[in-house]
Amino acid sequence: MKKRLLAMMAAVVAPAGLLVAFAGPGEAAEPGVVRTDKGLVASETVGDALVYDGIPYAAPPVGALRWKAPQPARPWTGVRASKTGSVCAQQANSEAPDGSTAEDCLYLNVTTPAKPSTKPRAVVVWIPGGGFFSGAGSSYEASKFAARGDVVVVTVNYRLGIFGFFGYPGLPGSGTFGLQDQQAALRWVQRNAGGFGGDPRNVTVAGESAGGMSVCAQLTSPTSTGLFAKAIMQSGSCAFNWADNSQYPGQTADSPWIPVSRVQATGKEWADSKHCTTLECLRGLKADVLVDDLLQFTQIGYGGSPVVPFSPAKAMKAGLFHRVPIISGNNHDEANGWLAAFGDIKDYPALVRNMVGAQKAPQVLRQYPQSRYESPAAAWGAVTTDRIWSCTQVATDQQAARKVPVYAYEFADKHSPIAAPGLGAAHATELPYLFRLGGYDFPMSETQQQLSNQMIDYWTAFARTGNPNGPDRPHWSPTGAKAVNGLSLAPTDQGGIQRVNLTAEHQCGFWSGLSTPA
């Protein structure tokens, strides 16, 4: 059952010889070439931006370095051409149709406006989503985002699945290697942002889905102190969890965060199945053997290292997080993206009974009557969106807003160019409004293009100043810590951008009062 859920949650050699006189990191080399702390990198022009693809930020985590903290990248000579780095090992999916067995994958990509600037630019570090088992930084082509917003964008690969979140008794860092990679990338930014015109003191860490959950983990990690000044969590909150039977019958309650002892116990069972009794034996297994079992390790282990000493959900609730401004939000119909995977939903009341029990089911059915929706599937989509996605995001916003400014939002375009007909603003459908996914310009109407521009303007103003507001777009106020008020982001022909009470819109008071297990 876990594998089924995970599958549904997936949402995409340097040539030598050109030598220049030495310039330290952050100093200019020649036009289109930047010296990093490990060597020179060249750019290519994409639209109104310069793109530096495939820069190694850590050594390949292979052989004896498998399941160890990321180590420094090796220096190189000459100029490293802009070339997409390997996608981290993962099973076949929409972003990696042939899958990947590459462990040498700790690369990042830097995009800067082509236009020179007289002052350092804000930096946005983007952590990809993909359920912690798929995804790549190279899927998020950021030329428009960088040029329009006058920011530097860094997109990151990190180890996934069994490579990034494996645990074993006595293994330091169990369940956190992917998060350690993200921190290594953020440290690379601190050392090298200046060379690309970026300001290392003005870094925003951002991500969607598993990337948003990663941002939460970094917000609550003691070892990320000083690595960023702002945070953006899209469709991935600290409080995210699912109850028994919350999406399909037989599903067990769980969370992205689990005790490290559980990760290690799973790792021991897996090692036994491979007839390995030592880490040396496990590190000797071929990558394709691990890829076959990638989905057994897709949760972050807490309590075993200073990287994640506590559950991020509990840390946020206790106020143990970095005091930085936050943008936080969801899509209006998050769960609809998985409705087709559950088959033809006919018995909506039975699903509700499985989720909350026979005693509480009548309350849910009164609150979400099937007659209000176009189909039983649509009714079930509303229930699961509100319970699993929207109200956990609202809870995170309430907790964070007690200490820092939180700008809450909801993406609400029912006809995103990547949404299947009839599914509304489902999971990940906001992404083409910010990035050229896969380098592709998805067709948009004039009003959708306007919304895309406004969203980029909000996001990048926030990255520059900590405040998303500016001309030519509605005012966005930070939410209070009780009712979560934010912006609904829709094209003008669907109501436009307007204020919304997210607590009420998704009936979070009802779900809080129902007290379903989590």
Automatic annotation (TrEMBL):
Q: Which organism is it from?
A: Kribbella speibonae
Know the name of this protein?
A: Carboxylic ester hydrolase
Q: Which family does it belong to?
A: Belongs to the type-B carboxylesterase/lipase family.
EC number(s) from the headed UniProt entry: 3.1.1.-
Which part of the chain is the Carboxylesterase type B domain? 47-511
Example of a GO MF term: hydrolase activity
Cross-referenced InterPro entries, in alphabetical order?
AB_hydrolase_fold (IPR029058), CarbesteraseB (IPR002018), Carboxylesterase_B_AS (IPR019826), Type-B_Carboxylest/Lipase (IPR050309)
Q: Which residues constitute the signal peptide according to the record?
A: 1-28
Q: What is the lineage of its organism?
A: Bacteria, Bacillati, Actinomycetota, Actinomycetes, Propionibacteriales
Q: What class of enzyme is it?
A: hydrolase
- Which keywords belong to this entry? Hydrolase, Signal
